[in-house]
Amino acid sequence: MAENTSRVAVVTGGSRGIGRAVVERLLADGYHVGYCFQTASDAAADIERLAEEHGVRVSATRVDVTDEAAVRAYLRQTEDTLGPIDVLVSNAGVIRDAPLLRMQAEDWNTVIETNLTGTYNVCRAAIFEFMKRGTGSIVTISSVTGVYGNAAQTNYAASKAGIIGFTKSLAKEVGRFGVRANVVAPGFIATDMTDSVSEAVRDRTVKKIPVGRLGTAQEVAEAVAFLASPRSSYITGHVLHVDGGIPD
Ligand code: NDP
To answer: What is this enzyme's class at the first EC digit (predicted)?
Structure first.
């Protein structure tokens, strides 16, 4: 049953993994959803069908979040198609893991530009309309790596720690305009991103997770949907860990 039929959400990186689970969850909650991705998406037909089932609209667009002008144009186009945006989920992210000694500048730049500058680009493009309308909920996706650090992920950890500082600061700037900004910090979630991790690393990691398993994209989407919605109306600047209790 749709929770709210008039709200509009935008999700970056919505074609796969956590982003796709967020898109599906928000559609089920009755949002019209615009999502973007970087390369070809074979998810579009299934997501379209789901939107039809829930009586809401969805739009899928190829946009590189590192391209500020393209992101701006994308948000304006989404407003034209779906209506004023109420919820922004900055989820698009990449990894390029290597120990610092072996890390190339390109690996550093790609991760910082996609994860951190991409978050800046979408939030910056959305924020004025949110403030003008006196409403809006931003959810950024960090990682427990941004909180605790992780070997061979200096670039990723820096980008994800940056997202936390960015979002907490933004929450302080825009709270009095009726706009909220929160962070979800997932732990080890089963998606394409973690498929690339070796069996040995995966087994070692699972042993450290108190609940004894990887998380699912749907479990992260639950947290995102809560922070996106008015059910969390007095929560802002918060970092919600969805990590099965991973210790630091
Ligand atoms: P996936 O690799 O499964 O999906 C990444 C998504 O981001 C895809 O939709 C991809 O699009 C999109 N994307 C990547 N780069 C860009 C770009 N430049 N512009 C637009 N879209 C882009 O990742 P996950 O679902 O695992 O991760 C989603 C988020 O959650 C990321 O921010 C990640 O850092 C974070 N996270 C993930 C964890 C995990 O264990 N999986 C743990 C903690 C945080 P396309 O399909 O076109 O490439």
So the answer is: oxidoreductase
State the pLDDT at residue 28. Answer: 98
Calpha distance 3→31 (Å, rounded):
8
Q: Does residue 1 fall inside a structural domain?
A: no
The CATH number for 22's domain is 3.40.50.720
CB-defined site of ligand 1, < 6 Å: 12-13, 15-19, 36-39, 63-66, 91-94, 114-115, 118, 141, 143, 186, 188-189, 191-194
Band the pLDDT of 197: cuts 50, 70, 90: confident
The interface predicted TM-score (ipTM) is 0.99
Active site residues: 156
Domain with 42, as residue range(s), is: 8-242
Residue 247 falls inside a structural domain: no
Q: How many domains does the chain have?
A: 1
In the chain, which ranges are E strands?
A: 8-12, 32-37, 58-62, 87-90, 137-141, 180-186, 239-242
